[in-house]
Design a protein that fits this description.
With 330 residues, the protein is mainly alpha-helical. 62% of the residues lie in helices and 0% in strands.
Length: 330
């Protein structure tokens, strides 16, 4: 028996009957020889970690645009926190931790520079629309490796696609959908307090009472409730869920919209629109790979792919290179 086959036998004998087994995966679009050491889902996790799109997440905004201090979250640190929370839940429920981790690590690969402000801008400008989850799928299916994609398993791609609104084919995918919200609500509270947008006293009383008054307590409360109440679906106790939803609404009303954290977002939209319009008018100036997409598919699709893949600072540099006059050098 290979190491992979031994691992698959361990999964079969120890996982819940509701778990997704690597040996029963629906497979990949392009069939390939299986690894002797890693299961299919372990291979997917490793491919995502080693991808260019994953590395670029370290310079993409989570909530606070281009924060000067080191401790604010980026899209990469958010992704790692989602993976940690999701793995904890999956392990406790005896579901497939490797599949869960792969989905979690890949769920935000398609996020634009400057977070949801960039996503809204591209969605308004691109005739085909834009959502980061669909773009994440496009990255792993096509854009990575200059058009070859990562050739991930069906289950991982499904989980990535469905992480925004739920409805994944696997419980592991449903875990990531919940873990994403648990992570961003709690770390965004911490960042908002650090940034002076909130104080601990602003958190609604019911949320503190049922969930706890610190990030650690809140995450523990929700994760524990999910573990204790999930069977055929991923769900939490009614009182915990009510407090959790109240906390989400509180954050949308006080941080995600119309707060000091958002005052620069109109500049982001203008920045992206300017660069987008420039490449729509000058598609031959796109890098070779994206220029080929423009010729083979359509120009807006290629420009959207190019901009969506940029980090915050690369987009600013691109804008300055195109539009800001350079100083004269003798």
């Amino acid at each position: 028996m290979t190491v992979r086959e031994q691992t698959e036998m361990i999964e079969l004998s120890t996982f819940s009957t509701r778990a997704s087994l690597a040996m029963k995966s629906k497979g990949r679009v392009v069939a390939e020889q299986e690894c002797n050491i890693r299961t299919a889902f372990q291979c997917d996790r490793d491919r995502i970690i080693h991808s260019s799109a994953f590395r670029r997440l370290k310079h993409k905004t989570q909530v606070f645009i281009s924060p000067e201090k080191d401790h604010y979250r980026t899209r990469l640190t958010h992704t790692l926190e989602v993976a940690q929370i999701a793995r904890t839940i999956a392990r406790a429920l005896r579901l497939n931790e490797d599949l869960t981790e792969a989905i979690a690590l890949g769920h935000d690969l398609g996020h634009t520079p400057f977070g949801h402000a960039g996503e809204r801008a591209l969605n308004e400008m691109c005739p085909h629309g834009f959502t980061h989850n669909e773009q994440s799928v496009r990255i792993v299916e096509f854009l990575e490796k200059e058009g070859d994609g990562l050739n991930l398993t069906h289950e991982v791609i499904d989980g990535i696609k469905m992480h925004v609104k739920g409805g994944a084919e696997t419980l592991e995918g449903d875990i990531v959908e919940v873990a994403d919200k648990i992570a961003f609500i709690n770390h965004d509270i911490e960042d908002a307090i650090r940034g002076g947008i909130l104080t601990p006293k602003d958190i609604p009383y019911n949320c503190n009472y049922f969930l706890g008054d610190t990030k650690s307590k809140r995450i523990t409360s929700v994760v524990t409730s999910l573990i204790n109440h999930s069977t055929d679906k991923i769900e939490m106790h009614a009182e915990v869920e009510k407090a959790y939803k109240e906390l989400i609404n509180f954050m949308y009303n006080n941080v995600y919209f119309d707060s000091l954290a958002k005052v620069e977002e109109h500049k982001v939209e203008r920045l992206i629109k300017t660069v987008y319009d420039y490449f729509i008018d000058n598609p031959n100036e796109l890098p070779q790979f994206y220029n080929k997409i423009a010729k083979d598919s359509d120009v807006p699709r290629a420009v959207c792919d190019y901009i969506a893949g940029m980090s915050d600072r690369y987009l600013v540099k691109m804008h300055n290179d195109i539009f800001v006059p350079k100083s004269w050098e003798m």
